[in-house]
C-alpha cells in the first residue's frame, strides 16, 4: 500500500462522515449510469424532499444519542406541531407567530420528556415510548382524525412551498448544529455527558440540564420538520411522520457514524446518512425495484455499519493510526 | 490554635452513615509541598476520609482547616475553590474526547465573549501544561480512550495541577497498573514534589511504593489511625506487623 492510499484509508476510518460520503458518491454515480433520469431537476427535488425531514430529526436524535438518550416520540411531534400552528392561526395569530407557538409547544413537550427521564430516572426508551402513544392520541383527538389545508401566504412558501426550501432549511440547520457540536461548550458537554456521566458530573458539568436541553432541541426540530412537510404537501395530516420517520432519522444517524452507546457522533455524518438513504429509496424507485427492497437495504446497512464500527474501533486501538 | 503553615489540617474527623461508624476520629496535618501516604485495607475508611477532604461528604464531627482557617465544604466545587482537588479512581476523563478537551473540561477557553471554543489556545496550553510536568502523550489531539492507563492517570493529575490545585488528593493512582506505568506515575509525583508548590495525599495499597514516594505515612484500620510516622523511619516489615497485630486482635 503506498502512502497516499494509506492516508486515504486512515481518513476514511478516522472520520466516519468521510466513509458515508464516499458511499453516497458511489451511489450517485451508479444510479446516474443506470438511469438518465437521476440528475434531473424533478428528481433532485424528489430526493431532497425524501431526506430533508430525516436530516432535521437526525440532527436532534444525534445530540440525544451522544448524550446517552433517545427520543422515540419525535415522529409524533412531527404530526402534532402543524395542528398547534393551525389552531394558533385560527385563534387570530399571523402565520409566523403560529409557527413560533407550535415550536414553543414542541419545546415544552421535549422539556416534559427530559424532566421525566432525568428526574425520575426512567430510561428515555420507556419515557418516549409512552410519549409516542400519548402525543399520537393527542394529535388524533384535537384533529378529530381529519386532515386540514395549510394557510396560504409567503411564510408557507419560505417554509416548504418552494421545491428546495425544505432541503435548504435542513442543510442550514445541520451546518449550524455541526458547529454547535464541535465548537461550543454545549456540544463538548453533550459528548462528556454521554461518554462518562460520572466523570462529567465530577468535573462540575450539569448533565441533567444538558440532556433536557437536547430533548427540547430534538422535539423542536421534529415539530419544525413537520411544519415544513405540511407546507410542502399543503396538507396537515394527523397520520404524517410517526415511527417511520423517527426510525429513518435514527438510521441516518447510525449509518453516519453516531454511536448508539453514547459519547460520540457526528451531525455531518447524519446529514450524509440521510442523503444516502434518500438516494437509495429514490434510485430504487427510478429503476423500478420493489419498494420492500429498500427496507432490506436499510436494515442491512445499519447492521453492517454497527459491525464495522465495532471492528474499526478495535483495529484502531491495535494499529493506532 | 491554628497553624497557618499547614496547607490542610483535619482534626478528629468522624463520619457516621446511619448505624455504621466509618471513621472514629482521624487527624492529620499537611505542610505545603509535603506528601502523605494513607495505607489500609478496603473498607477501612480511606475513601471516606478522602471524600470528606474533597468536599464530597461532610464530616459528622471534627474540623477541617485550610492554611489555619476553619472551613466547612458544602460541595466538591467549594473545596476546589480552596485549591483542593481530588483525582478520582475513575479518573473523570471522557474517553471519546481528545486529551486537550479533557484537560479543559468544564473550564473551556472561548474566543472572547463569543460562544465558540478556542481550540487552538486550549491545544497549546494543554501541551504546555503536560510538558511542564513532564508527561508524554503522542498528541494532545489523541482521544483519551486510545491511551494507556498510566498516561490517562498522568493526564488526570496534570489537569488537577493546571487548574491551580494546592492540595492534590490521589485516590489509588497506582491501582491496576504495571510496574513500568506505576514507575512513570511515581516519577511524575516526585517531579510535582520537587516543585514544592503542591501538597499531596495518596491512598495506596503498596507499602513499598508508598514509603518510597511519600514523606510520611498513616495506616487506617477500621476507621481509626493505627500508625503514623515519617517514611524514612518506617519499614515495610513494621507496617506488616501492625496489620498482623490488628488481625489477631480482630480474630479474638
From TrEMBL, chain A:
> Where would you find this protein in the cell?
Cell membrane
What membrane topology was assigned to this protein in its record? Multi-pass membrane protein
Query: Which is an annotated Pfam family here?
Result: BPD_transp_2
Q: Name one GO cellular component term.
A: plasma membrane
Q: Where, by residue number, does the polypeptide cross the bilayer?
A: 20-39, 51-70, 77-97, 154-176, 212-231, 243-261, 268-290, 296-315
In alphabetical order, the GO MF annotations are: transmembrane transporter activity
Cite the entry's keywords alphabetically: Cell membrane, Membrane, Transmembrane, Transmembrane helix
Superkingdom per UniProt: Bacteria
| Hydrolase among keywords | no
For this protein, the record's PANTHER family field holds: ABC TRANSPORTER PERMEASE PROTEIN YPHD-RELATED-RELATED
Official protein name in the record: ABC transporter monosaccharide permease
Q: Which organism is it from?
A: Acidocella aminolytica 101 = DSM 11237
TrEMBL record, chain B:
Q: Where is the ABC transporter domain?
A: 8-247
Against PROSITE patterns, the record matches this protein to: ABC_TRANSPORTER_1, ABC_TRANSPORTER_2
Query: Looking at the Swiss-Prot or TrEMBL record, what is one Pfam family this protein matches?
Result: ABC_tran
InterPro entries, sorted: AAA+_ATPase, ABC_carbohydrate_import_ATPase, ABC_transporter-like_ATP-bd, ABC_transporter-like_CS, P-loop_NTPase
Establish whether keyword Transmembrane is in the entry: no
Keyword annotations for this protein, in alphabetical order, are: ATP-binding, Nucleotide-binding
The yes or no answer to whether the keyword Membrane is present is no
GO MF, one term, reads:
ATP binding
- PANTHER family the record matches: CARBOHYDRATE TRANSPORT ATP-BINDING PROTEIN MG119-RELATED, SUGAR ABC TRANSPORTER ATP-BINDING PROTEIN
Protein name per UniProt:
ABC transporter
Organism whose genome encodes this protein: Acidocella aminolytica 101 = DSM 11237
Amino acid at each position: 500500500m503506498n502512502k497516499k492510499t494509506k492516508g486515504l484509508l486512515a481518513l476514511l476510518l478516522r472520520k466516519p462522515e468521510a466513509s458515508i460520503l464516499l458511499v453516497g458518491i458511489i451511489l450517485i454515480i451508479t444510479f446516474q449510469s443506470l438511469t438518465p433520469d437521476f440528475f434531473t431537476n424533478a428528481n433532485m427535488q424528489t430526493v431532497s424532499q425524501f431526506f430533508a425531514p430525516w436530516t432535521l430529526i437526525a440532527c436532534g436524535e444525534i445530540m440525544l444519542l451522544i448524550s446517552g438518550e433517545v427520543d422515540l416520540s419525535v415522529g409524533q411531534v412531527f404530526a402534532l406541531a402543524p395542528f398547534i400552528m393551525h389552531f394558533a392561526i385560527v385563534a387570530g395569530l399571523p402565520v409566523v407567530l403560529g409557527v413560533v407557538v407550535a415550536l414553543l409547544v414542541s419545546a415544552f413537550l421535549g422539556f416534559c420528556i427530559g424532566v421525566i427521564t432525568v428526574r425520575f430516572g426512567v430510561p428515555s426508551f420507556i419515557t418516549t415510548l409512552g410519549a409516542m402513544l400519548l402525543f399520537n392520541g393527542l394529535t388524533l383527538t384535537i384533529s378529530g382524525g381529519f386532515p386540514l389545508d395549510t394557510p396560504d401566504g409567503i411564510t408557507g412558501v419560505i417554509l416548504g412551498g418552494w421545491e428546495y426550501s425544505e432541503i435548504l432549511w435542513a442543510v442550514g440547520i445541520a451546518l449550524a448544529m455541526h458547529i454547535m457540536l464541535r465548537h461550543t461548550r454545549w456540544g463538548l458537554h453533550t459528548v462528556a455527558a454521554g461518554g462518562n456521566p460520572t466523570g462529567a458530573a465530577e468535573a462540575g458539568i450539569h448533565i441533567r440540564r444538558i440532556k433536557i436541553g437536547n430533548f427540547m432541541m430534538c422535539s423542536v426540530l421534529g415539530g419544525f420538520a413537520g411544519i415544513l412537510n405540511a407546507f410542502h404537501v399543503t396538507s396537515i395530516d394527523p397520520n404524517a411522520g410517526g415511527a417511520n420517520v423517527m426510525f429513518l432519522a435514527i438510521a441516518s444517524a447510525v449509518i453516519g457514524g453516531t454511536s448508539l452507546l453514547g459519547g460520540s457522533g457526528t451531525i455531518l455524518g447524519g446529514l450524509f446518512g440521510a442523503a444516502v438513504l434518500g438516494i437509495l429509496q429514490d434510485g430504487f424507485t427510478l429503476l423500478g425495484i420493489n419498494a420492500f427492497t429498500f427496507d432490506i437495504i436499510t436494515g442491512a446497512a445499519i447492521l453492517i455499519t454497527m459491525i464495522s464500527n465495532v471492528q474499526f474501533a478495535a483495529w484502531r486501538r491495535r494499529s493506532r493510526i | 490554635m491554628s497553624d497557618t503553615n499547614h496547607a490542610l489540617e483535619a482534626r478528629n474527623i468522624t463520619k457516621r452513615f446511619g448505624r455504621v461508624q466509618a471513621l472514629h476520629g482521624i487527624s492529620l496535618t499537611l505542610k505545603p509541598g509535603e506528601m502523605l501516604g494513607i495505607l489500609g485495607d478496603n473498607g477501612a475508611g480511606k475513601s471516606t476520609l478522602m471524600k470528606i477532604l474533597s468536599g464530597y461528604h461532610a464530616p459528622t464531627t471534627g474540623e477541617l482547616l485550610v492554611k489555619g482557617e476553619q472551613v466547612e465544604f458544602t460541595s466538591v466545587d467549594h473545596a476546589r475553590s480552596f485549591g483542593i482537588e481530588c483525582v478520582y479512581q475513575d479518573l473523570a476523563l471522557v474517553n471519546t474526547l481528545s486529551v486537550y478537551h479533557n484537560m479543559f473540561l468544564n473550564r473551556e477557553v472561548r474566543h472572547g465573549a463569543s460562544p465558540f471554543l478556542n481550540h487552538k489556545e486550549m491545544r497549546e496550553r494543554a501541551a504546555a501544561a503536560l510538558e511542564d510536568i513532564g508527561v508524554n502523550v503522542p498528541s494532545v489531539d489523541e482521544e483519551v480512550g486510545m491511551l494507556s492507563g498510566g498516561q490517562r492517570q498522568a493526564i488526570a493529575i496534570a489537569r488537577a495541577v493546571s487548574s491551580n490545585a494546592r492540595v492534590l488528593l490521589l485516590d489509588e493512582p497506582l491501582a491496576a497498573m504495571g510496574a513500568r506505568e506505576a514507575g512513570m506515575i511515581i516519577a511524575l509525583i516526585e517531579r510535582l514534589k520537587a516543585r514544592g508548590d503542591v501538597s499531596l495525599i495518596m491512598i495506596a495499597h503498596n507499602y513499598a511504593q508508598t514509603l518510597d514516594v511519600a514523606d510520611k505515612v498513616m495506616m487506617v484500620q477500621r476507621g481509626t489511625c493505627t500508625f503514623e510516622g515519617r517514611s524514612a523511619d518506617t519499614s515495610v516489615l513494621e507496617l506488616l506487623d501492625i496489620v498482623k497485630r490488628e488481625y489477631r486482635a480482630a480474630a479474638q
